[in-house]
């Protein structure tokens, strides 16, 4: 088993203020909350073999915060994590990392894609039944060998407020 | 929408030490962790219209801790929450509370039943894909009107360690 953490980007600037959606950055609040989430993950002793991020600014910034908090020494951009990306590209990518299938990974991306990816890994179909807040986390246990899709299990789904609790200021 | 919290009982005494499974109480550690979970729910301002509990001692004790922490003024025993209980009995029970369908509820019971109930409410079938630790929580949003099974969404799934984080001692 290895753990896959699907992490949604933090709160980003409004659509209207940027010409291109992919350029929207985290707001100060988004930056702050994402740092708190990252710090809590660190305190929980979570470590990622690698952080894979959507190429969009708000996701990349989120991934960089996770990395700078010490959750991983590696960060790669995976174009398939952009909105409407194809999970098969990640499965192919992951298939080339078989030797590290006992490691934990983070995928940083967008909704509804992350929820749909998780649903596909767990039930082999997407149904929009997971509610994933900004800077929220989905935790999935994936089998070390064999098919991942349809053979993974959900061990965590949290909004920042349930993770940070009273720590949040 | 109302929120349904399915809460697994805390850590209980070993099977060998009690003649009847249903008499096994929480251990001191189970009691302590359950109280910490309850306190965190209280701090998150979660309130239940009613706590429904399995009749088994370890579940009743868990439900009583939730109640004594101030999460609800009402606690009822629902025999269907005992191991291998039929979710239809809860659906029937809940159908008689239509006027309170905007309220939040807690169901305290056992695994794999709670996970299976949750899966049935969300996907209309049970598949054992949710990992629910002792004193762990499943949070589901159920529609205010119409069919619940197949029309609910998952907003939270947590083990105590992810909820308590550094608060746990």
TrEMBL record, chains A, B:
Enzyme superclass (EC): hydrolase
Protein name: Phosphohistidine phosphatase, SixA
Lineage start: Bacteria, Bacillati, Cyanobacteriota, Cyanophyceae, Oscillatoriophycideae
Assigned EC number: 3.1.3.-
Gene3D superfamilies: Phosphoglycerate mutase-like
SMART domains: PGAM
Swiss-Prot/TrEMBL keywords: Hydrolase
GO molecular function, a single term: protein histidine phosphatase activity
Gene symbol of the encoding locus: sixA
Gene Ontology CC: cytoplasm
Pfam short name (any one): His_Phos_1
Species per Swiss-Prot/TrEMBL record: Limnospira indica PCC 8005
């Amino acid at each position: 088993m290895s753990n896959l953490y699907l992490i949604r980007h933090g709160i980003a600037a409004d659509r209207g203020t940027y010409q291109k959606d992919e350029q929207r950055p985290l707001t100060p609040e988004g930056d702050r909350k994402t740092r708190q989430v990252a710090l809590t993950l660190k305190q929980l002793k979570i470590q990622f073999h690698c952080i894979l991020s959507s190429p969009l600014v708000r996701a990349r910034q989120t991934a960089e915060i996770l990395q700078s908090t010490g959750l991983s020494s590696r960060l790669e951009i995976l174009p398939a994590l952009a909105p409407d990306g194809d999970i098969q590209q990640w499965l192919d990518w992951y298939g080339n990392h078989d030797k590290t299938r006992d490691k934990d990974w983070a995928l940083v991306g967008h909704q509804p894609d992350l929820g749909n990816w998780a649903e596909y890994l767990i039930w082999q179909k997407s149904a929009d039944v997971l509610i994933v807040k900004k800077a929220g986390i989905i935790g999935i246990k994936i089998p070390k060998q064999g098919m991942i899709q349809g053979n993974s299990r959900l061990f965590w789904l949290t909004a920042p407020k349930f993770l940070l609790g009273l720590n949040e200021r």
